[in-house]
Amino acid sequence: MKRSSIYNVIIGMSIALIACRPQSQEIQPEVASDDTPSRNNVTECMVATQDVTFTHALNNADKYAKVLDNGTLEFKCPEGLDFFIDPNEGKLTNTTLPALLTKVDNTKPFTLTAKVTPEFTPEGLYNAADLLVYANDSLWQKLCFEQDEYGMHRIVSVRTKGTSDDNNHDKLDVPSVFLKISSDTHTIASYYSIDNNEWHMVRLYENYYPDSLLVGVSSQCPKRGSCTSLIEDITLNVDNVKDFRMGK
């Protein structure tokens, strides 16, 4: 057999093998390894309010909080502590926020609610009391009653997935507000209320958080002075709001 004929046979067999290659054997793109940050700044604690016991502290939060005789949680945040991951090359990133947290099974519904009264002061830019959903330092959301750049008090939400967004919502002329975060395992939504009856939706998105999740409360003081927040009527239920638009 001539050499050219041998080459033709080899080429023909190679083409046939490629054409008959099972679909399942196609080369798949590589999947990135799991680089999920750890919870290095989370420690165990025991802070019991009337209805919720916080079992974990982010950034030593248990040192800044105490339960008063009437059951209210007094949470004093020192100057300079905040939670924000700056999308602009991390220039303003600050992950020092103290938060009291407790575990939830994110494969089941949950609703976290609290009445918050932050300490608003003339120099207290971004002072706030927060509800927090926390997977790790790069995956979390906070819902805040916060003082803005004009000295106004408003609802603010920050969602972080690698980096943080920052959303200003309604301005409120009240000292206290009820905050709520609720999930049915598929959807997670945030709300506020003046009277714990009529709720206003702040934001709603897919619940992409891991099965093991921490939720809780915090007080923040990113700039000057301190912020002593009073947090009361804290509840955590294995249930979700029935109407995600109305928050009830």
From TrEMBL:
The taxonomic lineage of its organism, from the top, reads: Bacteria, Pseudomonadati, Bacteroidota, Bacteroidia, Bacteroidales
Pfam families noted in UniProt: DUF1349
* One GO MF term attached to the UniProt entry: hydrolase activity, hydrolyzing O-glycosyl compounds
GO biological process terms, alphabetically, are: carbohydrate metabolic process
The organism is Muribaculum gordoncarteri
What SUPFAM superfamilies does this protein's entry cite?
Answer: Concanavalin A-like lectins/glucanases
Q: What is this protein called?
A: DUF1349 domain-containing protein
